[in-house]
Amino acid sequence: MKIIVFVIILNIFCIQYISNCSCIILEKDLTKVYTLYTNIFKGTAALVLPPNSEYLIQVMFNKITAFKGNNTESTTYVTNNSAGVCGYHFEVGQTYLVYANEYETGKISISMCSNTKMYSNDTATNLEISELESLSDVKLANGFNLAAKLFVVLSIIAVIIF
Questions:
Q1: pTM of this structure
Q2: What is the CATH number of the domain that holds 65?
């Protein structure tokens, strides 16, 4: 009996050391979430490379709809190679709603502790995307942001008046 208790206690302590990733509760208020990340976008995983010497997996996305930050199809994002160190598992061809941070090193990192999730075309996700669009400093619509559209409209009005 003492051996069983010892093994159980040993396992409990070992599990803490095996899995170093301990996420705080994810923020639900999207206005606050928006301020926590440098890069927010919806994109389809196009390329997932095996871990490099720093144990980082490089991920590239296509079909990107950016809500915050400079997100393009040539941007490389990184995540750790294991969930034990908060790495996010991406599958090529799947679409994700990604929340990432760019660091001084220039790397844009995605963590399982972020609000990143596989995209699903359900009501809750569509409401989240709608709110992100309203918060967005990019506001893509047909390739133009809101400021560019406003500039074009005002320019046309100025030409007509003058």
A1: 0.71
A2: 2.40.50.120
